[in-house]
Please model this.
Amino acid sequence: MDSRWQARRLLASPHRIGFAAAAAVMAASALGWLALLLWPVAPDGAALPPASIAHALAFVFGFMPLFFAGFLFTVGPRWLGLRMDDARYAMLARRVRVPLAVYALAWVAWWPAWLAAVLGDASALPRPATALPATLLLVASAAWSAIVAQLARLLADAGRHPDAESSPQLRAAALAATMGAALLWAAGFAAARGDALALHAIATAALWIFCGGVFASASHRMLPLDAMADRPALEARHPLWLLALMGGTLALQAID
Model:
């Protein structure tokens, strides 16, 4: 067996693509934030989000969704009871690798674009320069929407498979991912308007509803929660009660 690194092996599995892209975005985000800490700058005009909000957007929408995508497209078929082999995972990887790459590139370019637009008086910069961060958010929104569409396709294909199983947790994660897409679109349009308050609210909502929702769905499926074992009667009647409770709590936290 050849143990040498090969690009085709990276592209042959959804989790390898997603995790590698997430690591690249995480590294780029860390370097961008480090540059800002070493050479503090702030936008003088209202056309750009302040550094704190740019940081929040990068760390909520940047690398975490890529980890989510790699995870969900790998374990999702198993949760649905589908028999997967290398060829089927390679097919899934081909479906998602372009939107994953576009999404990652948009976030790798996020801090350079923001820093370039902030240098000098934002109101004096040409419009394309100040509009670039908002444009990158909209590009990322389109890419993430395409990824969510592939997740919906996976669920739809499983629904037509006679041996497939129902997975409420995967559906809940897909719902959280869909809400993440909606919030990311909203962030793009808010950035285009220079609405910092809206961007702050969107980043907060995405942290709890999108990121928290995917984590809660995966935890409900994968972790042996003591609360479920302590209430066998409730668990028998309402097997998803704890997932619903976590989802409701996250939603309340998002609007608090």
Residues 7-255 form one domain. The chain has one domain: 7-255. Residues 15 and 70 are 4 Å apart (CA to CA).
